[in-house]
Structure to design on (421 residues):
């Protein structure tokens, strides 16, 4: 069952920026991220990588015991019991064991970075769903306020009609506008319910407040270059691409060493002629390298080259994404500022028109047209504020200033300590 907490618990400021006081508390977010199924899968992948690393560090060869028994008969004489036995094991050539250990360690590091990046993406999804829910709730509140305003206008029109101070047409126009507003309110109520249901379904462990907090516009962005540097230097994606390139390069080096097959050595003992002849010796077998090994080495070399190219591309993509984050944070705030100015002017104008209609100085058609423009202006400001808020939150998540530790410690802690499903 979904738990409901007092709204003040959700007004915990996640960062010093006052514009983020609409976000859920840090500890609630961390619990929601830890319990997300994708994080459970990533923790399992880390454990699998650790097990694989242990297996790579150990020798891929095991002791092999073989033997045989024979009863030999010579010239119809009494049979001779004979047997032989040997025990052998493959031995990795010099350098292979060290590279196997490096491959295992890089595999674990890649799994850890993948888990950290998964946590990052989940945090972005949570932020998007949370802000969308708050935005839809605010739009619905705006529509409800418009319904109340038009109900007041209809009451005035009804009284005027009763006193023969207004025409039937004026009353019908006010009534039509009210029904239109009610329809919009019903539609926005559905949008808000859908947004809330999405949030509750995807993050059932995140308790929601009884009343949605109000979205605040973020403060002006500080030096953009600082944020770009933070995003680039703290990115898990580039670290993952670099680790994958190192992994592929190490695999290629390992494949080159495999061009020289590993020998198999062991001991052999035998007994013949009922023990009349016995022996103990050393056995060695060496596979003869063929085209398969060369093909494998060429394949892994090509993959290493491709991984390095992917790393270079990821660096470019990350810088572009960081610049985009900063630009969106700046541009959406400027857009909101203009929308806020428009709303302020619209508030003053609609207040005068409503007062004029009450006094009989304003025509109903002028009032209703102004009401439509006013509600669109209010919605425009609310949507612009939500976009600006998300752009700012996304910037802080991508720079690991919000919800994501600078060194990915949240992901590491979760992988090491969270063992439940």
């Amino acid at each position: 069952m979904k738990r409901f907490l007092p709204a003040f618990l959700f007004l915990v400021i996640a960062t010093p920026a006052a514009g983020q006081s609409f976000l859920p508390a840090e500890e609630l977010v961390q619990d929601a991220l830890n319990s997300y199924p994708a994080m459970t899968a990533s923790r399992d992948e880390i454990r699998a990588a650790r097990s694989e690393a242990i297996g790579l560090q150990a020798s891929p060869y095991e002791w092999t015991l073989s033997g045989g028994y024979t009863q030999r008969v010579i010239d119809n004489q009494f049979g001779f019991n004979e047997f032989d036995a040997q025990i052998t094991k493959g031995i990795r050539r010099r350098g292979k064991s060290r590279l196997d250990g490096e491959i295992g360690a890089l595999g674990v590091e890649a799994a850890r970075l993948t888990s950290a990046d998964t946590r990052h993406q989940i945090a972005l999804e949570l932020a998007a769903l949370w802000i969308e829910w708050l935005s839809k709730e605010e739009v619905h509140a705006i529509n409800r306020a418009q319904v109340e305003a038009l109900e007041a206008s209809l009451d005035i029109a009804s009284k005027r009609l009763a006193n023969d101070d207004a025409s039937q047409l004026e009353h019908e126009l006010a009534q039509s506008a009210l029904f239109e507003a009610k329809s919009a309110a019903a539609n926005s109520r559905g949008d808000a319910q859908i947004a809330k249901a999405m949030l509750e379904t995807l993050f059932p462990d995140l308790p929601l407040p009884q009343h949605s907090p109000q979205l605040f516009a973020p403060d002006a962005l500080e030096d953009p270059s600082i944020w770009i540097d933070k995003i680039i230097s703290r990115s898990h994606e580039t670290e993952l691409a670099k680790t994958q390139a190192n992994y592929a390069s190490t695999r290629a080096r390992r494949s080159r060493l495999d061009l020289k097959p590993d020998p198999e050595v062991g001991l052999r003992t035998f007994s013949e002629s009922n023990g009349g002849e016995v022996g103990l010796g050393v056995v060695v077998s060496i596979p003869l390298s063929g085209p398969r090994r060369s093909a494998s080495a060429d394949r892994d070399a090509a993959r290493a080259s491709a991984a390095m190219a992917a790393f270079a591309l990821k660096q470019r993509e990350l810088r572009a994404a960081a610049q985009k984050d900063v630009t969106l944070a700046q541009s959406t705030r400027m857009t909101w500022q203009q929308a806020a100015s428009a709303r302020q002017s619209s508030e003053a104008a609609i207040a005068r028109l409503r007062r004029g209609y009450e006094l009989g100085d304003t025509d109903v058609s002028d009032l209703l047209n102004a009401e439509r423009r006013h509600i669109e202006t209010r919605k425009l400001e609310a949507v612009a504020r939500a976009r600006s808020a998300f752009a700012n939150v996304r910037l802080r998540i991508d720079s690991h200033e919000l919800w994501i530790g600078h060194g990915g410690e949240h992901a590491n802690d979760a992988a090491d300590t969270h063992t439940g499903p």
Q: What stands out?
A: The first helix runs from residue 26 to 34. The longest strand covers residues 80-90. Confidence is low (pLDDT under 50) at residues 1-19, 411-415, 417-421. The two ends are 19 Å apart (CA to CA).
